[in-house]
Write a structure and sequence with these properties.
single chain, 596 residues, Jelly Rolls, Immunoglobulin-like, 3 domains, 30% strand, globular, Beta-gal/glucu_dom_sf, Glyco_hydro_2_CS, Beta-glucuronidase, beta-glucuronidase activity, EC 3.2.1.31
Length: 596
Amino acid sequence: MLKPRSTPTREQVNLDGLWRFALDGAARPEPWKGPLDTRLEAAVPASYNDLFTDPAIRDHVGWVWYQRTARVPRGWTDERVLLRVDAATHEGRVYVDGVLVAEHVGGYTPFEADITGHVRAGDEFRLTIGVNNELSNVTIPPGTVTVARSGRREQQYKHDFYNYAGLARSIWLHSVPPVHVTDVTITTGLDGTTGTVGYSVETNSSAPVRVRALDADGAEVAAAAGATGALRIDGATPWRPGAGYLYELVIEVLDEDGGGVLDVYREPFGVRTVEVRGTEFLINGEPFYFTGFGKHEDAPVRGKGHDNAHLVHDFQLLEWIGANSFRTSHYPYAEEVLEFADRHGIVVIDETAAVGLNLAVQGGLTGRPHDPTWAPENFGAATRDAHARHLRELIARDKNHPSVVMWCLANESSSAEEGAREYFEPLVELTRELDPTRPITHTAWLGATGDNDLIADLFDVVTVNRYYGWYIANGDLEAAEQYLEHDLRGWVEKFGKPVMMGEYGADTLPGLHSVWDVPWTEEYQRAYFEMNHRVFDRFEAFVGEHVWNFADFATSNGIHRVDGNKKGVFTRDRRPKSAAHALRARWTGLNGRKPR
């Protein structure tokens, strides 16, 4: 889905701000049919959970309602009027003056509706958006809704981060001409110093198309006619990690005579290549070593609400610490995040919201038999269909971002359990069909090893999450080092692919110190990382290290999490722990090269 952009033929109105807000049942039975009867107002974009002091709102399970009025600009009389929701977590319904115009399931990808037939240029209309946070065995991520003895509905889920909900990203009103571009796909390559740019443009109606490539200064460097084709940019400046050089593809839809311009759309792109060769991960033909983090869209008060101030500061901290990459754990991040990474040369592993597809974790924690993960009553064909839809939407949204170098299909699924291959093989095939240009991966949990994993051979890069010294051999880093080396050696020798660490970390309370290796202290977190790094550096096939986590983040209530997950090397308000300085000393000297 194309992101709304302002061009000579397109305009947009941002609808962010304060919206009327109510829980389902607190207003009229059908709240979209009239003005929302409430005194509450909620910020958009923001998760609603932490905005209010009422625990009934924070812990609500089910639908909530947002409402405001909007006005269509007078100049849009002859235009198509579209309404776009950047995300509604986890399900959304949109009503214009009481008429349902759009529905969508999936909390982290956009959806839109053509509302031309429901509004008039210059007039005001009532916009109501319902958002439902319920998760089930056929949603991504999955969950279960239960009813407590008190009668209160409760949401259970398998992922270890708080289930923030609401309108966490922007809402847009935008116009397009009657004949317009609906999609564009850009693929790039390097032929010596020449950049090759393949393009494919889709329009809503048959019409001539021409394209022009502009460099960063706005100078035309290539042009072609036709909806599909290839451009060559002599002396191209490649997009590189740390140097995010961008070109722009200007797409023009013409009238039948070829003289008048009906629509203009502009899409930034970078010229670069990505491939896996043997045990190396290559960007522009050069070996690349990932340094960075698993992150979260997580902040006090706003929850998962997108915030440009946090965006800028987080990227400043990535630069300060020497990180060259991050994984969008465990869901697609806001498009603004990827655009920023494009401009600043930060490498991204882009992940679906498929986290929690693992009932074996219960067995690992309790020592008791667990329900089968890959079963129709748990995660079967219906779940896989939802997963496939998420993949289609993720790739459709993010396919043109040069910062995105790899797709991650899921986090810590039960990949050693019977049925895993039947579940994942069709998803792998779909991903390669949708985008044959990028490698793919999947992160393996602690219960999956090189000996018992059933799906690692399907992927280009073996990514493992390991917590030796924390969940296993806690406080005994000598034993943890032996376990980790044995574990990684099994993956390297079994699959002959690049291997990287998707997560490794230890919970740490800022300000807690000790002269001994005591878990939860800042000294232990540093020693834990030093142990891991010694092991990583012993393997030629090892291609990267992503610390869990960039910053402390909110989790669900539980006796094992005091005020959230504390594995961040920065606190939730972005103050560095001691380990941040140690990582900076290691990473700033690497510059994307493997440690020697």
